[in-house]
């Protein structure tokens, strides 16, 4: 049960397809559990290929009328959706905390963050401009116009169940596209609640379709979208391994893709950094959502001259973080999403300790709180042979590496197949220019640990994916350019 909701109807136990709330075609369901205690929150449809195909059919039927709407008409619906999200902040936050585990205060922040994307793209809807090209021959007029790509399949992760789906659906609808969506199996309830609010805001039947599925069934459902030539774009946030599979399997119908994939973010503290600010930055970047974000620093590099002082300051702050279930108002770190996540965190820490790392704080499971809790951890004397350097931990663990030279630390920071985010702290303006240019990442935080914004283009390079979300560049990913050449004018 999810208690204390003002609107209990926000907990949906059906798929939204063509404006109707429906069970799965097979009638099968699966349980959504609270990661803090394992309690079942709801049983919802376990969708398969037939449900995915029904969602595509509904979107295909709705597309012509939606793309024909004036941009300001689509914008008004998005603004209404934004207002409903904001008005239901508390219920959405409680729902999210229950199924994802993040503390309630953090969940409220995510509601505001996700709503910001809806408001941003409502404003951007009326600013999709083409071009009149300079004439190259007499009697010809050349123009470039931007049009919606069509049906978009959105596949979203569990770590930000509201923000990630909002920042995919909002630009798609603003551009005139229609959407079929599958949220992560661990956290589908928030997405279904958002779909209900979109329906109430006036999103027409079939323009937004959301189906839920367990891990195994979801693979089958997504495969149907990959094979269906009517689906023209895939937008996915998740692991690099799955992103590569989507890119491969969508190639048969040459879909447009936006892939926001895994990361291995470095966080560099130079000798001239404001250490208090740098500690604040690590706390903001690393321990948000219990370290379960793709832009979390996975490797913290600290100049040798300030290493011991910084380590002591960080360990003191991290050791004071309150770990508890989301229902506890004082919680700062909640449970990890599931047992697999805890096993990976423990494996990374144990591997590091075996190779000489020392635990300054944390470094253990908090079994007294439940199966999915792990203590916020700071490790010193980390080295390049530890798993942190090659795998994304996705948990509240900050390993500290020592360095002496700027060129050395940049080479080390870039020595990864990933390139999503990177952070560094310094007060040297010339160094800011050098290091910003040298780091291989799509998102750079300079003296700042919280970098996300609806106005900024978010995305990675290398094996962290391609495409951008947020900003006007994010809207472009849902548009196709058509060149029109009109002759006979002379």
Automatic annotation (TrEMBL):
UniProt xrefs under Gene3D superfamilies: Aldehyde Dehydrogenase, Chain A, domain 1, Aldehyde Dehydrogenase, Chain A, domain 2
Signal peptide: none
A molecular-function term among this protein's GO annotations: glutarate-semialdehyde dehydrogenase (NADP+) activity
E.C. no: 1.2.1.16, 1.2.1.20, 1.2.1.79
Keyword tags: Oxidoreductase
Domain spans labelled Aldehyde dehydrogenase: 21-484
Family (UniProt): Belongs to the aldehyde dehydrogenase family.
Annotated PANTHER family: SUCCINATE-SEMIALDEHYDE DEHYDROGENASE, MITOCHONDRIAL
Name under which the protein is recorded: Succinate-semialdehyde dehydrogenase/glutarate-semialdehyde dehydrogenase
Species name: Paraburkholderia silvatlantica
């Amino acid at each position: 049960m999810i208690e204390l909701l003002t609107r209990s109807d926000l907990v949906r136990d059906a798929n939204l397809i063509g404006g109707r709330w429906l069970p799965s075609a097979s009638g099968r369901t699966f349980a959504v559990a609270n990661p803090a205690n394992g309690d079942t929150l709801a049983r919802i449809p376990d969708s398969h290929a037939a449900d995915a195909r029904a969602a595509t059919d509904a979107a295909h039927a709705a597309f012509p009328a939606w793309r024909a709407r004036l941009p300001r008409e689509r914008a008004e619906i998005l603004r209404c959706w934004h207002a409903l999200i904001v008005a239901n902040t508390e219920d959405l936050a409680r729902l999210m905390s229950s199924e994802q585990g993040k503390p309630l205060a953090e969940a409220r922040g995510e509601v505001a963050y996700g709503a910001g994307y809806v408001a941003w793209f409502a404003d951007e809807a009326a600013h999709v401009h083409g071009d009149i090209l300079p004439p190259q021959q007499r009697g010809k007029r050349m123009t470039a116009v931007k049009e919606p790509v069509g049906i978009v399949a959105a596949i979203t992760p569990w770590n930000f169940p509201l923000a990630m789906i909002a920042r995919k659906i909002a630009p798609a609808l603003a551009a005139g596209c229609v959407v079929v969506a599958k949220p992560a199996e661990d956290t589908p309830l928030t997405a279904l609640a958002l779909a209900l609010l979109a329906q109430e805001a006036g999103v027409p039947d079939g323009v937004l379709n959301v189906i839920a599925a367990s891990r195994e069934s979801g693979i089958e459902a997504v495969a149907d979208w990959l094979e269906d030539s009517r689906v023209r774009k895939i937008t996915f946030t998740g692991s690099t391994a799955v992103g590569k599979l989507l890119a491969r399997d969508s190639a048969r119908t040459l879909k447009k893709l936006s892939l926001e994939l895994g990361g291995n973010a470095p966080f560099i503290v130079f000798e001239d950094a404001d250490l208090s600010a740098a500690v604040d930055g690590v706390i903001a970047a690393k321990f948000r959502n219990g370290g379960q974000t793709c832009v979390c620093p996975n490797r913290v590099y600290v100049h040798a001259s300030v290493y011991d002082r910084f380590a002591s300051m960080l360990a003191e702050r991290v050791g004071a973080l309150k770990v508890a279930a989301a229902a506890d108002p004082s919680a700062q770190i909640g449970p990890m999403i599931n047992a697999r996540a805890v096993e990976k965190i423990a494996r990374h820490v144990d591997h590091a300790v075996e190779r000489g790392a020392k635990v300054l704080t944390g470094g253990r499971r908090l079994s007294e709180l439940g199966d999915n809790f792990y203590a916020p951890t700071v490790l010193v004397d980390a080295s390049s042979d530890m798993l942190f350097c090659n795998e994304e931990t996705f948990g509240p663990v900050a390993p500290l590496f020592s360095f002496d030279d700027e060129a050395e630390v940049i080479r080390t920071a870039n020595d990864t197949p990933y390139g999503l985010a990177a952070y560094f702290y310094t007060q040297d303006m010339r160094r800011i220019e050098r290091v910003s240019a040298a780091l291989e990442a799509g998102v750079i935080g300079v003296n700042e640990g919280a970098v996300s914004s609806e106005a900024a283009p978010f995305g990675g390079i290398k094996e962290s994916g391609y495409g951008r979300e947020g900003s006007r560049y994010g809207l472009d990913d849902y548009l196709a350019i058509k060149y029109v050449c009109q002759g006979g004018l002379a």
